[in-house]
Design goal:
The protein has a seven-stranded mixed β-sheet, sandwiched between helices. A four-stranded antiparallel β-sheet has the order 11-12-15-14, with helices on one face. Strands 1-13 form a two-stranded parallel sheet. The protein folds into two domains: 114 residues, Aspartate Aminotransferase, domain 1 (Alpha-Beta Complex), CATH 3.90.1150; 261 residues, 3-Layer(aba) Sandwich (Aspartate Aminotransferase, domain 2), CATH 3.40.640.10. The longest helix is centred in the C-terminal third of the chain and has 39 residues. Helix 10 packs across helix 12. With 445 residues, the chain is of the alpha/beta class. It is built from twelve helices and 15 strands. 35% of the residues lie in helices and 14% in strands.
């Protein structure tokens, strides 16, 4: 991309056109205390010097040399190289919206395959063609329930990812929707007592997450039994999509809508993105309410199978005030990676990968118990669990100096909780890494 700097005359002309005397006036809204008082000491560099500068700068990134136990919604998993190869092909990298199906059959078919696999994983019949991330998918699930039930009170488990809850609250802030959270019990699961206190027939939807933010697998079939036929929708959020490879699908628990994050399926954490939200349902009446795009299978004039965007009364296709959602973009390239990832592993491979997560996380959990490291919630987990120490921030920083990222202090999300650390163990973590973490925790806990 070429860069054309503005000369003094063009700058003067632009300022005159907008009625401003000088450039400084454009920044008057910024307090003086926030403005730099000195000139930036920037010395021009040659191309070679610039390349060397950035090379040296990149070497300061020490992340690969650290032992990592990070999760909380973004997970590191083994991604076969074929995922990078196929998703890197030009015909998949360059397309945007496949408005012309006659020239976009490859992208449309891959998207259709993705929808089918996500529907199978969640136990639902219908899936959209992605949303931005799990948080926006959760918010869209609440909005769907609001439109369908015409009720404005919703209950959300306090054990969902805090950022999901924040996103939902942002979405509904000006819509008259009331959000109430359900406490968790001593096992870290949705509290039945608090649920029964807060639930009534005026609730339009209940949102829970499993595995929840603390890594605990929820058994929530009792919620469906409680709400019965009261036109209250049960929405399940899945922040760790790989768990669906081995756990019972949300459909087993009676979920009406399933939302979540598919980053685990072929996408690297990459400092937080890109991510891949999904929303699925089995209710045909909800099809017109699903946000994002949907690809359908059809036949052409000659009877050949073809793929097209379908049920498109949403976003940019109709008047904005009548749109199902304000999300217009589609995570098409992320979908390609997820489709390849799921196809390469297959049913058995995905199950084995998920099994490794359960085994390694539970090995870590049991070994910590034996060494008197306190497990906060002693309930079944997938690949995350919470420990308690005297000072979580101190332990975190001490281990960081030893090149161990031990997890995430829950204080970052719950300021009052200064003792808890959320530890994640996926298949990329070795037994030796787990044993090292436990040894170091024993010494400083």
């Amino acid at each position: 991309m070429r860069y054309f700097p503005h000369g003094k005359n063009s700058i003067k002309q632009m300022l005159e056109d907008i009625g401003v005397n000088n450039i400084e006036e454009l920044f008057e809204a910024i307090p003086d205390s926030n403005k730099r008082k000195t000139e930036i000491d920037f010395k021009p560099k040659s191309e070679n010097e610039l390349m060397e500068y950035f090379k040296n700068l990149s070497e300061e990134n020490r992340y690969p040399s650290y032992k990592r136990f990070l999760g909380a919604g973004a997970y590191e998993h083994l991604i076969p190289e074929v995922v990078n190869y196929i998703s890197g092909k030009g015909e998949f990298v360059t397309p945007y919206t496949p408005y012309q199906p006659e020239v976009a059959q490859g992208t449309l078919q891959a998207t259709f395959e993705y929808q089918t696999m996500i529907a199978n994983l969640t136990g639902m019949e219908f899936s959209n063609a992605s949303l931005y991330d799990g948080a926006t998918a959760a918010a869209e699930g609440i909005l769907l329930a609001w439109r369908v039930t015409r009720k404005n009170r919703f209950l959300i488990a306090g054990s969902i990812h805090p950022e999901y809850l924040q996103t939902i609250q942002t979405y509904v802030k000006n819509l008259g929707i009331i959000i109430e959270t359900i406490d968790w019990d001593e096992e870290g699961r949705v509290s039945k007592g608090d649920f029964e206190q807060k639930y009534n027939e005026n609730v339009g939807g209940i949102l829970i997450q499993s595995p929840n933010f603390f890594g605990i697998i929820e058994d929530y079939s009792w919620i469906k039994e409680k709400i019965g036929e009261n036109k209250t929708l049960l929405i399940t959020a899945v922040a760790e999509a790989l768990s669906l490879g081995i756990l019972k699908p949300p459909s087993f628990y009676g979920a009406d809508v399933v939302v979540g994050e598919a980053q685990s399926l072929g996408l690297y954490p990459s400092y937080g993105g890109p991510t891949l939200g999904f929303i699925t349902t089995s209710n045909k009446k909800f099809l017109w309410e699903l946000p994002g795009r949907i690809v359908g299978e059809t036949v052409d004039a000659d009877g050949n199978t073809g793929y097209v965007l379908t049920l498109s009364t949403r976003e940019q296709h109709i008047r904005r005030e009548r749109a199902t959602s304000n999300i217009c973009s589609n995570q098409a390239w992320c979908i390609i990676r997820a489709s390849v990832f799921l196809s390469v592993y297959g049913k058995q491979g995905l199950k084995e990968l998920a099994y490794q997560n359960i085994q390694k996380a539970n090995y870590a959990k049991e070994q910590m118990k034996k060494r008197d490291i306190k497990i906060k919630f002693d309930a079944p987990v997938f690949n995350e669990f919470v420990i308690e120490v005297e000072d979580a921030e101190k332990v975190y920083n001490s281990l960081l100096e030893k090149k161990i990222i031990c997890g995430i202090p829950l204080k970052w999300f719950f300021p009052e909780d200064t003792k808890s650390i959320l530890i994640t163990v996926t298949e990329v973590v070795s037994k030796e890494d787990i044993d090292l973490l436990i040894k170091e925790l024993e010494e400083i806990k």
